[in-house]
């Protein structure tokens, strides 16, 4: 492969979203004295959040609807009544607190140190501008990347081909010299492949994958391809 540009997803690929999100909820529930079982809440919230992000990717809901709806639905599932004012405060505080916790996936720094001398590294993320920039800065990841491409800047979300073409333009890269690495099959892998960009699936959940797809369970396994 004649690869010169590597595009990484951020959440669930380098930045351990689930771990950091759990810590954020523990913090804001204590602050606002939300007396529920955190584990019970999170068991419902994780799947609900995933569904809301899918709707957001498909342009079916707004950022504000995502932030409010995922919390409202999770509290409804555990039969805990919460007033809208508190839900809105929790939504704001969650976004504020989330980037303060910066657990990364095992091998994140090591693989970036390995790749940085030989490739131009970039981020393509559907996450919100104000949050993603803080995550990159607070985690010490910012210095590794030349271009940070967000869906808000591109005007569309992965897997829309427009965001990948926008990323190539921003990075001054061509598709045949680029590769995308991410955890989301639809948004990262198929989104890239459908735009003519090769892809590596960060398959930390160890799902069944077709043999023709490059797949790794650990970030350090990327070395076998790059």
From TrEMBL:
CDD domains reported for this sequence: HAD_Neu5Ac-Pase_like (cd04305)
Keyword Hydrolase: yes
One Pfam entry name: HAD_2
Transmembrane residue ranges: none
EC number per UniProt: 3.1.3.5
Signal peptide (residue range): none
Keywords recorded for this protein, A-Z: Hydrolase
InterPro entries, sorted: HAD-like_sf, HAD-SF_hydro_IA, HAD-SF_hydro_IA_YjjG/PynA, HAD_2, HAD_sf, PGP-like_dom2, Pyrimidine_5'-ntase_YjjG
GO molecular function annotation: 5'-nucleotidase activity
PANTHER family reported for this sequence: PTHR47478, PYRIMIDINE 5'-NUCLEOTIDASE YJJG
NCBIfam families xref list: HAD-SF-IA-v1, YjjG_YfnB
Protein name, UniProt field: YjjG family noncanonical pyrimidine nucleotidase
Organism expressing this protein natively: Lutibacter aestuarii
């Amino acid at each position: 492969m004649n690869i010169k540009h590597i595009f990484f997803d951020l959440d669930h690929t380098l930045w351990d979203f689930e771990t950091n999100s759990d810590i954020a909820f523990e913090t804001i529930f204590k602050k606002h004295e939300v007396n529920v079982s955190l584990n019970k809440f999170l068991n419902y919230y994780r799947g609900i959040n995933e569904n809301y992000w899918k709707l957001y990717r498909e342009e079916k809901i707004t950022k504000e609807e995502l932030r409010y709806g995922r919390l409202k639905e999770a509290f409804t599932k555990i039969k805990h009544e919460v007033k809208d004012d508190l839900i809105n405060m929790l939504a704001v505080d969650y976004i504020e607190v989330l980037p303060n916790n910066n657990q990364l996936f095992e091998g994140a720094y090591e693989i970036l140190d390995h790749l940085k001398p030989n490739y131009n590294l970039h981020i393509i993320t559907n996450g919100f501008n104000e949050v993603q920039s803080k995550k990159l800065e607070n985690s010490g990841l910012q210095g590794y990347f030349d271009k940070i491409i967000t869906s808000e800047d591109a005007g569309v979300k992965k897997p829309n081909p427009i965001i990948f073409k926008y990323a190539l333009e921003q990075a001054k890269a061509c598709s045949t010299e680029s590769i995308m690495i991410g955890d989301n099959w639809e948004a990262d892998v198929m989104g890239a492949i459908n735009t003519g960009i090769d892809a590596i699936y960060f398959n930390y959940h160890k799902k069944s994958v077709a043999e023709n797809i490059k797949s790794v369970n650990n970030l350090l396994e990327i070395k076998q391809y790059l």
